Amino acid sequence: MELWFQRFFTFRRFLGVSGMGVEWDESLSVGIGIIDDQHRKLIERVNAFADATESMDSREIENTINYLTGYVIQHFGAEELIMIRNRYPRFKEHRDEHSSFVKQVFDVFSLLGERPMTKEEAVALRDTLVRWVTHHIRVTDHGISETTKGALA
Ligand SMILES: [Fe+2]
Q1: What is the pLDDT of residue 146?
Q2: Measured in angstroms, how far is the CA atom of residue 75 from the centroid of ligand 1?
Q3: What's the confidence (pLDDT) of residue 147?
Q4: pLDDT under 70 in the chain at which residues?
Q5: CA angle, corner 88, sides to 76 and 69, nearest 5?
Q6: pLDDT value of residue 14
Q7: pLDDT at 101
Q8: CB 127: neighbour CB atoms within 10 A?
Q9: Rounded distance, CA 153 to CA 151, Å?
Q10: What is the pLDDT of residue 120?
Q11: How far, in Å, from the CA of 51 to the mean position of ligand 1?
Q12: Which of 11, 20, 28, 90 has its CA 20 to 30 A from that of 153?
């Protein structure tokens, strides 16, 4: 079975891209305090996984993925509740992005149930996470504050 992040790995190798974790900067702020705080924590967890890919300690890889997944699910729930309460018009598309991410996380867990990750898989997953999280925050999550213009319920 080819996993979603393995496809990206081939592309990444083609581009010669390499990268580590995510550094917080103002472009990642959506201007909603509670969401920004959660995004900072989410980025800390992505970075903890990125650190684990350096040491390639398989227990550490698994622990940081577990830790990240728990936080992602909790954070998506909080964001979705804010969107529902505010009758956010693009809720369904936004939720679809969350759902497809969660399905991909399931594939990662399925793989880890069979065997430890290789270094190539862990690095490809790290780069995909960095790319997905920063793109989702800058584009999709920004939409929430742009649409509600700070008038959140
Ligand atoms: Fe989101």
Answers
A1: 81
A2: 8
A3: 78
A4: 1-19, 149-153
A5: 5
A6: 45
A7: 95
A8: 21
A9: 7
A10: 94
A11: 24
A12: 28
SS3 per residue for the chain: CCCHHHHHHHHHHHHCCCCCCCCCCHHHCCCCHHHHHHHHHHHHHHHHHHHHHHHCCHHHHHHHHHHHHHHHHHHHHHHHHHHHHCCCCCHHHHHHHHHHHHHHHHHHHHHHHHCCCCHHHHHHHHHHHHHHHHHHHHHHHHHHHHHHCCCCC
Separation in Å, CA 145 to CA 117, 130, 152: 38, 22, 8
Q: What's the gap in Å between 140 CA and the centre of ligand 1? A: 6
Ligand 1 mean position, distance from CA 69 (Å): 14
Distance CA 117, CA 37 (A): 30
CA of 83 to the centre of ligand 1 (A): 10
Return the pLDDT at 20: 84
Structure tokens at 16: 């010669």
The pLDDT of residue 12 = 47
The whole-number pLDDT of residue 130 equals 95
Fold of 30-148: Four Helix Bundle (Hemerythrin (Met), subunit A) (1.20.120)
Distance 78 CA to ligand 1 centre (A): 9
